[in-house]
């Protein structure tokens, strides 16, 4: 690597203090002196140590991370490593990985996981190195080609990177993959005999902009042109032919988005190709589409190519039947516009019951005075193109001239008589690809009602896209629903921490200490706040509003005033005898007394109103004038238990709980402000 002046490298099959290699391989790279920095990502525990992938670099590494990749029980665990380094003033993210050789489906999932991670990586320049174990086909690299460049396979030149002794039919399994703003100038391999793999290296150039790449379009176009037109209905192949023509005419300076849209159009046209009339032999047995599903005691005859299609048939006669057995029948689920059923006719054949899509029972008489093979027994045409099911049941019914009621079935022919309308799935394909890249982890913060709708819309969109018979209206509806759901993915769950803390603080307040009006308003907001807190779909704005309204209602609470002195004064005034005082002065007392009673009986009276009423009543009592006609032995003085100092008696106007809650509110407000600042930052 020093000879080739390698700046950075991905390393696979790395041991760290295992029984196989009892040292740290990544540190050993650094110890050699050429590379100054390394990063290791464990895939599995192995041999008393760790086994995984790594990165070595001449430039300082930062942002080191990595993750495990999808796997299955019995398949060795895999991972990818990631780090960043600076080169020519640009930040580059470097990835290293090693994929599973055992299972192509798992390998496909691993590739999807890495692509999703790289797509989500905001670093503008990205490089992926790895042993991809793509032993099945070069096409396993095609998913990368949609938005990335490949070194091994560049310009369709594939280099062997593993020796002859390696298992598997393909040897071009290692690769270097870059973003479109990294130009791959040269690609070479070196076989030093130190490993069963050859070192693959590329000389790259950092560009200031992304350069479109047509390599995947070329592969897709090649595949489309390889499909024989006579194998498909004229109408469905016409859609593909038009897409091929458009792809060939795509302008030279097309953007990557335009190129990818054309790839989508070609793939959609290929997906909706409909095979021309298709024969299903009775030997194609199963429960899937275009298969015979025989139920009951059927016999099979084989080795008669002169009689039966492909030399075989299925048959049943009632001599095989025992009471309690299932009456034999078979079904075929097919996709088309009709079906023809072929079998034998002779003197022993009976009458069959046939239904299509659980419709009306149609009886078919297979009797014939002489034996005829491969005869048309039943036909239905003109069905709406799509999936249908035919059911054929044996019966004991027969023609009066037949000697038995047997049934012999040879093959079926699926019909495609209806023109397939051109359906544009390009936009749906783009939406489906984006939606399928969204993981359950991505949806964790989204409110459940939106997350559930998104998943349902995504499932529907995938089903419609994969349905070759989907109409344009169905495609459009699936796209609209998925797009609408994706637009709402920013509807995230509100942070309810502060709301919950304040609810807990104020829930224990004593309602008897507060005025009715202010308590009613507070209780309403407290109930609303609890509703919002318990609503799993509440968003941040709703949470913030509930918090604000609850705090406001709490601050507006008013403690009940202390009316004890007013009560005593009222009782004293009511004990006075009006005959003992002048009418004018006692009328003044009566007026003040009535006003004091009104305040006393008002549950929403404030402390100020109580104090004013008390002062007014005191003044009225003090201003009473003795009646001159009152006998001299009558005590005209006001006998009151209220002393002169009573007007300065301290009145309890607060609730001890209020002080603690207000202090807590201040702390919450400070904490809340900190949270808000973090979000604004």
Automatic annotation (TrEMBL):
GO annotation, cellular component aspect: membrane
Keywords, alphabetical: Coiled coil
Coiled-coil stretches noted in the UniProt entry, renumbered to this chain: 237-283
InterPro entries referenced in this protein's UniProt entry, alphabetically: Endo/exonu/phosph_ase_sf, Endo/exonuclease/phosphatase, GPI-anchor_lipid_remodeler
Pfam families in the record: Exo_endo_phos, FIVAR
Gene Ontology MF terms in the entry: catalytic activity
Entry-linked PANTHER family: CALCOFLUOR WHITE HYPERSENSITIVE PROTEIN PRECURSOR, ENDONUCLEASE_EXONUCLEASE_PHOSPHATASE DOMAIN-CONTAINING PROTEIN
Name of the protein: Endonuclease/exonuclease/phosphatase domain-containing protein
Source organism (scientific name): Thomasclavelia spiroformis
């Amino acid at each position: 690597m020093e000879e080739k002046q390698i700046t950075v490298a991905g390393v696979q099959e790395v041991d760290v203090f295992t029984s196989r290699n009892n040292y740290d391989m990544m540190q050993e790279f650094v110890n050699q002196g050429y590379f100054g920095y390394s990063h290791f990502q464990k895939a599995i525990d192995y041999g008393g140590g760790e086994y995984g992938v790594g990165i070595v670099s001449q430039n300082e590494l930062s942002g080191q991370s990595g993750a495990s990749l999808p796997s299955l029980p019995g398949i060795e665990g895999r991972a990818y490593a990631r780090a960043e380094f600076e080169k020519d003033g640009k930040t580059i993210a470097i990835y290293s990985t090693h994929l599973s050789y055992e299972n192509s489906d798992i390998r496909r999932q691993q590739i999807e996981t890495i692509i999703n991670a790289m797509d989500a990586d905001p670093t503008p320049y990205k490089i992926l190195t790895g042993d991809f174990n793509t032993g099945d086909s070069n096409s396993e690299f095609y998913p990368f080609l949609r938005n990335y460049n490949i070194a091994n396979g560049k310009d369709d030149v594939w280099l062997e990177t593993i020796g002859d002794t390696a298992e598997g039919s393909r040897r071009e399994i290692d690769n270097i993959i870059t973003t479109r703003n990294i130009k791959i100038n040269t690609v070479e391999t070196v076989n030093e005999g130190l490993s069963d793999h050859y070192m693959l290296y590329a000389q790259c150039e950092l560009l200031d902009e992304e350069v479109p790449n047509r390599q995947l379009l070329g592969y897709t176009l090649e595949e489309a042109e390889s499909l024989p037109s006579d194998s498909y209905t004229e109408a469905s192949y016409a859609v593909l032919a038009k897409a091929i023509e458009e792809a060939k005419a795509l302008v030279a300076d097309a953007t990557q988005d335009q190129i990818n849209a054309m790839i989508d159009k070609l793939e959609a046209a290929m997906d909706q190709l409909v095979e021309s009339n298709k024969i299903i032999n009775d030997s194609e047995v199963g429960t899937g589409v275009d298969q015979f599903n025989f139920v009951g005691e059927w016999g099979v005859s084989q080795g008669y190519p002169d009689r039966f299609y492909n030399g075989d048939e299925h048959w049943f006669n009632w001599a095989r039947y025992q009471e309690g057995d299932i009456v034999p029948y078979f079904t075929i689920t097919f996709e088309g516009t009709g079906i023809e059923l072929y079998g034998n006719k002779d003197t022993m054949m009976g009458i069959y019951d046939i239904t299509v899509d659980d419709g009306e029972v149609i009886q078919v008489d297979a009797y014939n005075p002489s034996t005829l093979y491969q005869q048309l027994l039943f036909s239905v045409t003109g069905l709406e193109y799509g999936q249908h099911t035919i059911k054929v049941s044996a019966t004991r019914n027969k023609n009066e001239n037949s000697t038995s009621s047997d049934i012999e079935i040879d093959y079926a022919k699926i019909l495609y008589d209806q023109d397939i309308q051109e359906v544009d799935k390009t936009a749906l394909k783009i939406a489906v690809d984006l939606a399928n890249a969204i993981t359950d982890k991505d949806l964790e913060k989204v409110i459940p009602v939106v997350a559930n709708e998104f998943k349902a819309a995504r499932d529907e969109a995938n089903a419609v896209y994969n349905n070759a018979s989907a109409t344009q209206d169905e495609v459009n509806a699936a796209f609209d629903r998925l797009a609408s759901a994706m637009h709402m993915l920013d509807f995230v769950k509100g942070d309810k921490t502060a709301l919950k803390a304040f609810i807990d603080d104020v829930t224990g307040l004593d309602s008897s200490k507060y005025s009715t009006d202010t308590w009613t308003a507070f209780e309403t907001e407290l109930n609303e706040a609890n509703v919002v807190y318990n609503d799993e779909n509440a968003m941040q704005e709703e949470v913030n509003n509930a918090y604000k309204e609850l705090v406001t209602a709490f601050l507006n609470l008013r403690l009940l005033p202390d009316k004890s002195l007013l009560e005593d004064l009222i009782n004293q005034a009511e004990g006075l005898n009006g005959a003992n005082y002048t009418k004018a002065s006692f009328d003044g007392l009566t007026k003040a007394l009535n006003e004091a009673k009104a305040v006393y009986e008002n549950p929403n009276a404030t402390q100020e109103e109580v104090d004013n009423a008390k002062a007014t009543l005191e003044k009225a009592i003090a201003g009473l004038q003795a009646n001159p006609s009152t006998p001299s032995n009558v005590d005209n003085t006001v006998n009151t238990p209220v002393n002169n100092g009573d007007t300065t008696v301290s009145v309890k106007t607060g609730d001890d709980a209020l002080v603690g809650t207000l202090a807590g509110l201040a702390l919450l407000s400070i904490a809340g402000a900190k949270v808000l600042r973090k979000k604004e930052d």
